[in-house]
Structures are given as structure tokens and as C-alpha cells.
Amino acid sequence: MKVIAVSQRVEKFKEFKEVRDALDQRWAGFFKKLKAVIYPVPNYSRNPEEFFGKLKINGVVLSGGNDLFVFSTKSRTLERDIMEYKLIEYAIKKHVPLIGVCRGMQMICHYFGMKLQLVRNHAGVHHTVDFNKLCEPARYFQKIKKVNSYHDYGILCENVSSKFEIFASQGNVVEGIIHKKLKIAGLMWHPERENPFRLQNLNFFMEFLDL
Asked: Fewer CB atoms near the end CB (10 Å): N or C, the chain?
């Protein structure tokens, strides 16, 4: 069974004087459908290669939750940003496929020097999405008309690096990107939050992560 490393959000609990890593339980169910297991990555370790040890990681997912530290400097997300930077570097070095979901796609954009900004009407809604039929990932999502949306920050089409292609958008706001050479993709909707899980999302993850 293949192993997928998944990053976690950071939650601070003042009443317990604790800072906790957290991951939506639905990710486990999502990857169970794909006959893979998840390996939640703690944010305290800033060297994932050392942390994984001899464990073979077959893919990396940067999950949602938390704003990037650049947008929320009063939070404790800097440690998560550092970990996810290292996970991106690990995936590139080891030629491991990487998918960023919502915040995870924002982190990929930030890593590659793309400008993120506030976007309107993308938090707590379902909205229409257009897929670029000339871009390969779009074939997985042809039957999807709307996606869930839970983010305040995003990237406009004109700010996407030339290293990437846009495979999904809503107007001028990017909803999905894929690297032209590396096995790196990002999407702004949450496949784990659909009930039941959408077959299109499952098929995309299965093939992109070589499951």
C-alpha cells in the first residue's frame, strides 16, 4: 500500500497552553478509497527527509487550513510554512508527485514567487468553475460545474508563473494549476469535503499521485 505524506494545520489552545497539529479526518477516508494510507507530517520537524527515515513516501499533499504567515503574522503558521517549504523541496528532490489543496496551492504559488491577494466571494460558498480543455488535468473534471470554496486569498490569472499552466479558473481567479515540467499541481477546492467523494477528484488524485 502506498503512503502519502499530508501536511497539517496548526491550532492554538490557550486554555490548555497547547499548540496542536490537526488534520481533517475525511482525508483518511478519501485516501482509503484510493487504497493508500496517509502519513500526517508534524510541524515541529523542519527536515522531512530526516523525519521520514527509511519510510518510502509515494506522494505529498499540502492540505488546507490556516492563512500563510505572510498574511497572518500574529498566528503560529510560520512553523507550518517552513515545513511545507521543506516538503515542496523534498518532493522536487525525490521526484515525488505533489498536490496542494486550497492553502496548499497558495503555498506552492508563494514558493514559486507568485503574488497572492484577497479575493471576494470565495469563502464558504459553492461557485462555478471553468476548465481549460487544452490543459491535460481538465479531462478529469469535465462533468464538474461547481466546486466548494473556503479561502480568502488566491491568485489572479495574470500573476501565474510561466512555469505553470492554468487548468481551472473562475473569471480571473485561478482555481487549478499544474507545473509544466515537475509533477506539481494545485487546486483551490477541497476534495475531502465532498460527501460522497466525487469520482472526478478521486481519479485525478489516483493518477497524478501514481496510485
From this structure: N
The tens digit of pLDDT for each residue in 30-51 reads 999 999 999 999 998 778 888 8
SS3 202: helix
Gap between the Cα atoms of 156 and 162, Å rounded? 13
Helices (H) and strands (E) in the chain, counts: 5, 14
Tell the burial category of 29 from Cβ atoms under 10 Å away from its Cβ (0-12, 13-18, 19+).
Answer: middle
In which element (H, E) is residue 94 found?
helix 78-94
Reported as a single tens digit per residue, the pLDDT across 65-94 is 988 998 877 667 899 999 999 999 999 999
Grid cell, residue 116, equals 497572492
Question: Domains of the chain: which residue ranges?
Answer: 2-208
Given CATH 2.40.50.630, say whether it is the number of domain 2-208: no
Cα–Cα distance, 152 to 165 (Å, whole number): 22
Look at 183 and 1; give whichever has higher pLDDT: 183
**pLDDT reading at 16 higher than 70:** yes
Secondary structure letter of residue 28 according to DSSP: H
- DSSP assignment of 98-149 equals EEEETHHHHHHHHHTTPPPEE-SS-EEEEEE-EE-TTSGGGGGGTT--EEEE
Q: How far apart are CA 209 and CA 97, in angstroms?
A: 6
CA distance 209 to 211: 6
Q: Are 72 and 158 in contact (CB under 8 A)?
A: no
Q: Which amino acid is at 118?
A: L
